[in-house]
Amino acid sequence: MTATFEDLARRLRDAYAGGTVPPLRDGLDPTDADGAYAVQTINTRFWEAQGRCIVGRKAGLTAKAVQQQLGVDQPDFGVLFDDMRIADGGRLDPARAIQPKAEAEIAFILGADLPDPATTAEQAAAAVARVHAAIEIVDSRIADWKISFADTVADNGSSAFFLLADAGRPLAGLDLEGAAMEMTVNGAVASTGVGAAALGNPLNAAAWLARTLAARGEPLKAGDILLAGALGPMVALTPGDAVVARVAGIGECRFTYGN
After folding, report:
1. Which 3 state secondary structure label does DSSP give 109?
2. Which of 50, 66, 105, 176 has the most CB within a 10 Å radius?
């Protein structure tokens, strides 16, 4: 290993403007979670110092099939900054993205803190103020999406942008596990799935995030946005695409990938 964590963090930051970089093999073993989160944290602190504000977290790798594909047995997380949010019905300028893909999710907005490193799904549910249909636009600074677990973690969970449906619902009475998802691109169905894809239930993903962040001394707080993981396959975007995500019983949201 010849590159330091600071080197890798700088390389990823530069990729936002300069284009993709090769996988981070010269500084990270593909399964080195601790090292990868150290790189992520360096850049989180850098961006905060530049004035970006954290508004929540995203869970990734919540589907067992994707975990198996990358040879890991755990989800990962990334930071959501305020300037990553797109308005429901808004536009994303392709000049702001590199190799983006869209995935439909369920999002929570918390109404209470979750400071317990042993948080259960039931405790997470009690802290949820609203539930929203959501779309995450993931994007990798790693060339051709040739990512390992360490690559995606270091790269802030391959995050880019996100949007939430304007209308949210209270959690009571919602079937999160059985909620059917359909995402269309230009009116054609491009991805389908169900709430159970996110660790069996999106609340399980919320509890995992709460436990993990509390153990790191960075607990989830009231007002935080929490993206609970993809409900179906992600879809590569082409300029001009109009994307709509519908989650049964919860709502729908949309955006256009174009200027």
Report:
1. strand
2. 105
* 255's tokens: 């955006």
Q: What are the counts of helices (DSSP H) followed by strands (DSSP E) for the chain?
A: 6, 12
Band (pLDDT 50/70/90 cuts) for residue 105 is very high
- Please give the Cα distance from 179 to 198 (Å, whole number): 11
Q: From 196, 182, 134, select the one nearest 162 (Cα to Cα).
A: 134
pLDDT tens-digit map of 181-196: 999 999 999 999 999 9
Beta-carbon contacts of 19 under 8 Å, excluding residues fewer than 6 positions away, are 98
Quote the tokens at residue 19.
Answer: 């284009």
pTM, rounded to two decimals: 0.95
Identify each DSSP E strand in 150-257 by its residue range: 161-164, 180-185, 188-194, 225-230, 235-236, 241-247, 251-257
